[in-house]
Every structure is written in structure tokens, then in C-alpha cells.
Amino acid sequence: MTTDVTLSPTLSGVARNRSRRRSQSTHLNTAVGHAVMVLLSIFCLFPVYWMIISSFRPANAIFETTLWPTSASLENYTYALNAIPIGAMLVNTLVVSAVVTIAQLFTGLLAAYAFARWRFPFDKLIYTMIALTWLVPFQVVMIPNYLLVANLGLLDSLAALILPHFAGALAVLLLAQAMRSFPAEVIEAARMDGAKSWRVLWEVITPNLRGTIASLAILIFISTWNEYFWPLLLSRTPENSVIQIGIQMFMTSEGTAWGPLMAASTLASLPILAIYIVLQQQVIQSFMKSGIR
Q1: Of 217, 253, 255, 185, nearest in space to 104 by CA
Q2: In a 10 Å sphere around its CB, with 0-12 CB exposed, 13-18 middle and 19+ buried, how is residue 234 labelled?
Q3: SS (H, E, C) 143-182
Q4: What is the pLDDT of residues 126-143, one digit of tens each?
Q5: More confident residue, 125 or 22
Q6: Contact (Cβ atoms closer than 8 angstroms) between residue 235 and residue 241
Q7: What is the dihedral of CA 210, 211, 214, 217, to 10 degrees?
Q8: What is the DSSP letter of 253?
């Protein structure tokens, strides 16, 4: 009995020491993790910062390595706005990106519902073929799509930029996966209330997939906004082109106008940055809910 009483404070002290060491280890791991994230954030944001800062450097100081321009100037923006129709190109890019995003979400929802809730002949084969098309680079089918658009008389038009992207395999696959995990009991309850497939899709399933739809919309919009090769193949006039082609116009055989190029790139990035700032919380939540990393 005496031995137990004697050892009790010792065991308690050992437990406290272990708890203290675990706490210190946890704090150390947290500090290291935060330090790594800060370094990665700087690594990711520095090119954007350098682009913006370089857009304010005059031509004779464009290659300076200082973190802040010694003599800031707006001449690059003035030159870029006068050299190409940036406003029209930004509007064209916004229209194409928005229409493609809406079209792929609409067609993706319809196809995903069919694959997730209906059974029809060769449904698995068709689904597999759609999945395989996602692995095929767009450059492989670029020439057939070009011939199709040319035969339709749509060259040098926004419709030509939209048509080949009207449906996307990624939208079908992601939405079908989300719909398969949707509770079947909810759908059955809606059917017992007399709801048909169209009403079930738009009034029951779609409102509960806001996270998946939001993350998918962001991916489609950014991917379409950054598209370069397809507009390069189709565009004939700057007024019917997109901003990515306008940025490329500052790179010629005579040399690259780095200042105006950085100014045009900054203007091209502003809509995407504005969308992210406004929808930052929604972006984070949607990616977490949909499981995209």
C-alpha cells in the first residue's frame, strides 16, 4: 500500500511530461506546416506579382530586378489598349466562357441523370466511351472540328469557338458520380408525390448538388478562358477573337513587347481574379464537397 502511494506522484509526473512533449510536438508540426504553406503561397503568387509590377515598368526598365518599379508608368497599358481591341476581346472571351460553361453543365446534367438513374442497352459501353474521350487531347480532333466548322460557314465567329465545346466528358463523369451517391430514398419519395424525371432532376437533385456544380463551373470557365489553340486556328480578325490571341500579338518575329504584353496579361487576369475574390468561400467549399483536390 505504501509503495502504491509512493509511485503515484511519479507516474503522474511521467504522464504530464508525455503530454507536454506531445503538445510541443504538435505545435512544432503546426508551425512547420504553416511555414511550408507560406513558402508555397509565395512561390505561387510571385509570378502574378511580377507580371503586375512589370506592367508598370517603362520600356527602358522592363528588365529591372527590383521588387518595385523605380519609375512607374501607364504607358504599357496605353500602348496595349491602342494596339489591340482589348475590350472587345475580353467581352468575346467572357461570352464564350459563359456560354460553354452553361452548355456543358446543362448537357452534363441531362446525360449524368440518364447514366445514374436509368438502365438502357449498352449504357455501360456508352459511358465508358464518353470517359475515354476525356483522355483524348483536343488537338487530336482539332482538324475534324475545323473542317466541320468550315463547312457550316462559321469560321471567324464566336459560334465556332463554342460549338465543339458544347458538351464535355468531365461534366458527365463528375455529375454522374455525384448523382449515383445521391440518396435513392429522396428520389423515391419525390416519385411517390407524382414527380416525373424532369422535375426530379431540376427540383430535387440539382439544388442538392450545388457544391459539385459550382466547382465544375469554375473548372470549365477557367479552362475555356485560357483556351488558345482553337481560337488561334479559327480567328481571322481581332474583333472576333479572344484575349489569349490578343496577348500573343505582342510576340512577333521582330521581338517581344514585354511591357504591353504584361499589361494585356494583367487585364486578362482581372476578371478571373475578381470572380475568385467574390466567390472565394464558395470556391473552397465547393472543392471540399466535391472531393476535387
Answers
A1: 217
A2: buried
A3: HHHHHHHHHCCCCCCHHHHHHHHCCCHHHHHHHHHHHHCC
A4: 999 998 888 888 888 888
A5: 125
A6: yes
A7: -100
A8: T
Question: Would you say 250 and 264 are in contact if contact means Cβ atoms under 8 Å apart?
Answer: yes
Strand partners, 256: 251
CA angle, 133 as apex, 130 and 137 as ends, to 5°? 160
What do you get for the CA distance between the two ends of the chain, in Å?
59
Q: How many CB atoms lie within 10 A of CB 69?
A: 16
Kindly list the domain boundaries of the chain, sorted by start residue: 17-72, 75-291
Is residue 142 packed enough to be buried (19+ CB in 10 Å), middle (13-18) or exposed (0-12)? middle
Contact (Cβ atoms closer than 8 angstroms) between residue 187 and residue 116: no
CA angle 179, 211, 125 (to 5 degrees): 30
Amino acid in position 114: A
Q: What is the CATH number of domain 75-291?
A: 1.10.3720.10
Query: Which set of grid coordinates corresponds to residue 71?
Result: 519609375
Q: What predicted TM-score, i.e. pTM, was given to this entire model?
A: 0.80
Structural element, H or E, at residue 251: strand 251-252
